Amino acid sequence: MTMDFEHFGHKVYSTISQNKNNQNVFLSPASIALAMSMCTVGARQETLKQMLNVFGVPSIDDLTKTAEKVMHIFSIADNDKQVKLKLANRLYAQKAYKLQQDYLSLVQNSFKADIKLEDFENNSDHVVQTINTWVEEQTNKLIQNLLSKNDVSRDTRLIIVNCIYFKGTWLKQFEESSTNQNADFHESNGKISKIKLMYKKEKYAYAENNDLNVQIAHLPYKSDNHDVQFVFTVILPKQDVSLDEVERKLTSKPELMQQVLSRQNTTTQELLLYLPKFKMEATFVLNDVLIQLGMVNAFSGGKADFTGIVSEEDDRNGLYISKVIHKAFIDVNEQGEFVYNYEV
Fold first, then answer.
1. CB 3.0-4.6 Å disulfide test: which of 141, 308, 341, 343 passes with 28?
2. What are the Cα distances from residue 344, in Å, to 10, 66, 311?
3. Best CA proximity match to 91, nearest among 113, 123, 68, 110
4. What residue stretches are annotated with the Serpin domain (predicted)?
């Protein structure tokens, strides 16, 4: 991802993790950033200013260029037979609701989004079913009932859906016979839990970062592509260094994340690599998080200005964001990793 989206992702993650009190947090910054970018490019006046400020960019043009770079990576990976990486953006708008032509052109060209017209006003239950069916199709039925009837009302005018799907196979797969089915895992709160722990003795790109006091290992995925490399990066705090401390430094100094992800400071070393085998699913309503970061007006019916999406003449009540739902799932096992994320 580009720096703008990375920094935005750090801020979102940091804000969520502060409220989670040592609970596991998993989310997709790219999914959240792309969905909110599609909202931002339709904002105007103070609403636009606040949203651009959270992204850390000066203009819609700069934000669009960032999004296009991310979309380009997905398009390159689309031809890779070893890695499955899919992105889908879709807008559901109220039937006969006149969206600004410039906005439609922008989201179609820069975000590759398609537009569907639905009747929220008279048949919101059907719209929920339609969106959920599309989501199921995009994820091979792995995500079902993403939206409930309570998420959509007859007053809903626009729903933006973003989906990211990733399935990768380790270049050097773990042997299932080497997995400890009953290993001890020491949590940050001192608790010891039982987990499945994978093991492999293999050569990997390895580094240590003294600013963070961590060990870093890069686990590559099989790929046909030489332009884009997909890597699973593991960051392990050294003994007596808390994960909270590492996360705080990464959030306050974004350049440290660049160092962590970079292969420039690594050496190829034979490692005794132990990696938990795990599945994690998370659902977040991000309204409060985004408001806390500074997107205040966008969520206010009286203050939001999205006249770049629909003109005041066509929507007397004014468009605003009523709910941002983010759903993420990850499965890390001996064969590789499977991830899907949805943003509504």
1. 341
2. 20, 20, 22
3. 113
4. 10-342
Considering the segment(s) 3-169+279-343 as one domain, its CATH architecture is: 2-Layer Sandwich (3.30)
Give the three-state DSSP class for 24.
coil
Count CA within 13 A, CB hemisphere, residue 129. 5
Residue 180: phi, psi to the nearest 5? -80, 115
Q: Which CATH number fits domain 176-275: 3.40.50.300, 1.10.760.10, 3.40.640.10, 2.30.39.10?
A: 2.30.39.10
Domain locations in the chain as residue ranges: 3-169+279-343, 176-275
Query: What would the mean pLDDT of 116-127 be, rounded to a whole number?
Result: 90
Residue with token string 């007053």: 155
* DSSP H or E segment with residue 88: strand 84-94
What predicted TM-score, i.e. pTM, was given to this entire model? 0.85
Tens-digit pLDDT profile for residues 199-224: 999 999 999 999 999 999 999 999 88
